[in-house]
Amino acid sequence: MTQYDILKQYFGYDTFRDGQNDLIESILKGRDVLGIMPTGAGKSMVYQIPALMMDGITLVISPLISLMKDQVGNLNQAGILAAYLNSSLTPGQYHKVLEYARAGRYPIIYVAPERLVTEEFLNFALDERVKISMIAVDEAHCVSQWGQDFRPSYLKIVDFIRRLPKRPVVSAFTATATETVRDDIMDILMLQNPNVMTTGFDRPNLYFAVQSPKDRYASAKNFLERHPEDSGIIYCLTRKVVEEVSMNLIRDGFSVTRYHAGLSDTERRNNQEDFIYDRARIMVATNAFGMGIDKSDVRFVIHYGMPKNMESYYQEAGRAGRDGEAAECLLLYSGQDVITNQFFIDNNQDNEELDELSREIVAQRDRERLKKMTYYCFTNECLRDYILRYFGEYGPNYCGNCSNCLSQFETVDVTEAARAIVKCVQSSRQRYGAAVIIDTLHGANTAKIRNYHMDENPYYGSLPKVPAYKLRQVLNYLLLQEYLEVTNDTYAIVKLTSKSEELFGEDVTVTMKMAKEQERPAKEKKGKRRGKSMEAGTEFTEEDENLFERLRALRSEIAREEKVPPYMVFSDKTLTHMCILRPASREEMLKVSGVGEFKYEKYGRRFLDCICS
User: Fold this and answer.
1) Contact indicator for 459, 306 with CB cutoff of 8 Å
2) End-to-end Cα distance, the chain
3) In this structure, what is the dihedral angle of CA atoms 143, 148, 152, 155, given to the nearest 10 degrees?
4) Residue 480 in contact with residue 495, Cβ under 8 Å?
5) C-alpha to C-alpha distance for 495 and 475, rounded to whole angstroms
6) Would you state the pLDDT for residue 525?
7) 276 burial class (0-12, 13-18, 19+ CB within 10 angstroms)?
8) Quick one: which of 510, 509, 479, 471 has its CA closest to 497?
């Protein structure tokens, strides 16, 4: 079988996505590869398909139990034998997997990096009956201490490869990697003349939005009320906020579960399964949740607070719309988020094995990344363009699918306000945060202003008619353009920079884009799928919508019968394609994206009957 035969028979697709076949060809020729491909771009197929064609076993190094279970479950549903080795197995189960592997039963085995150097696994790997044809390193950014998820256990991979009698092909994959992290992956894993493929970071099906609401919960609740049938994730910065948000949503009648490191292993596992199996529609979680969760029908991700870097944000937001259908990513920002994340950076316990100088270098880089993440929340430019530029991609500063591109802006002269802000910061000896500066310029008569003696500041009350939200927009713009900076001691303090002096003179003009008063963002998404299919560009009718719901109900029924997550039966994208094509025969059903021969034999007749009923 060729890779094209495998793609169609097991996965139900006629063509490869950008970069997939090029990497597969390299692997089949025995060449190392590094694939930097966005979430949902099909990274796993790049090593799964060659694994079925190569003589021997492909070991997939994976960081999380949930990731392994999900991948193995998907392969088994497609008719491919695969297994995993991790701490969730009993000793008897572990030995049975190794026994079957020695007998050549599994072409693909997922293994945790910690297991590689254990005596039992090394005995298996060095057994003359075992041929390891490829090592595939998933989530490869974990090998770099400059990555957002550095895991020291990943450093054991190279030691393991060195001990093998014959070096296998080594392939590495990640969704988010800056140039520094990319180079680190190649160096640490000692990739030999690798084919490095970056297919682009853009996820055009994702709509990005940033809001800075006074009441975050009210904004999140409003969003959920407009998406009554959709499945999604709400990320919170702390366990405490997870508990508060999940409790309030349950009180308000939403289908919710929660996930954070403070719960028992059993409760985390049960809650995760409730979400994956659609028993709970919404997952409220810290960033401990999500890596390796291949739930393809997540229609939204809400960040109930700003993550500490763009890598984490894009990875978490990218868990929406993995099926390629339209999905939304909403970030609800507050200035307090900067302080919370700075606390996490200053108290990071993940890099204790590094020396003091290295830890400080990592912390400084983390602060710089936090600053870039904060600027994302300030900018009035295209949000997608900002993300892509961060990862080194450049294009037009308009995507038409983010809150900034769909808002109406006008260029405004803010020189007076900008100069007053900078001079107020200077005359207050750079001791206060943004709220105090804005209240001072407004002339607020509060206890805090009086206690700080800011009512004696020469700029007290100098801008009483400029709304506070506009002053904050101007201050954020000055931060974005580095006329000011925020340092974090016990709380965020606004300070001058080397550029501040430019605003002291009278010959400088400051202009910025501001949303027009009479306009609101044009994007008003609904919970229904009515609209265009991202894949086919075809308008969804009400009849299509009704069929989609019937197909989704059938999918849930089959999933309950087989005790698998619904998306493992068929993805939302596949159901959408069924609605568009309306297949009436086996041949027509096999033309639906995501319907392979194995799945057709299992489910095809029931879905045909549903479509024709």
Assistant:
1) no
2) 37
3) 0
4) no
5) 11
6) 44
7) buried
8) 479
Q: What value does the mean pLDDT of the chain take?
A: 88
Distance CA 278, CA 496 (A): 51
How far, in Å, CA of 125 to CA of 107, rounded? 14
Tell whether the torsion through CA atoms of 383, 470, 417 and 336 is positive or negative.
negative
Q: What are phi and psi of 43, to 5 degrees?
A: -60, -40
DSSP category for residue 56: S
pTM: 0.76
Distance between CA atoms of residues 305 and 286, nearest Å: 10
Report the C-alpha gap between 27 and 40 in whole angstroms: 21
Scanning the structure block, which residue is given the tokens 């550029």? 499
Helices (H), strands (E): how many in the chain? 25, 17
CB of 113 closer than 8 Å to CB of 152: no
What pLDDT is recorded for position 279? 93
User: Is residue 60 within 8 Å of residue 133, measured between CB atoms?
Assistant: no
Q: Determine what percent of the chain is predicted with pLDDT higher than 70.
A: 94
User: Which token pair is 13?
Assistant: 């697709």
In angstroms, what CA-CA distances link 251 with 246, 254, 287, 303?
9, 8, 24, 20
Q: How many residues does the chain have?
A: 613
CB of 29 within 8 A of CB of 89? Answer: no
Distance CA 421, CA 479 (A): 11
The label of the residue with tokens 């030691």 reads: 159
DSSP class of residue 11? I
Residue 186's contacts (CB-CB under 8 Å, 6 or more residues apart) are 34, 194, 196
- The one-character DSSP state at 577 is H
Tell me the two tokens of residue 414: 């803010």
Nearest to 291 by CA among 233, 370, 352, 208: 233
E strand or H helix at 285: strand 282-285
Tokens found for residue 313: 């944000």
Query: Strand, helix or coil at 537?
Result: coil
Q: For residue 467, which phi and psi values (nearest 5 degrees)?
A: -55, 145
**pLDDT score at 322:** 87
**Helix, strand, coil abundance in the chain, percent, nearest 5:** 45, 15, 40
Of 545, 543, 570, give the one whose Cα is nearest residue 557: 570
Q: Give the range among 137-146, 536-545, 575-584, 589-598 with minimum mean pLDDT.
A: 536-545
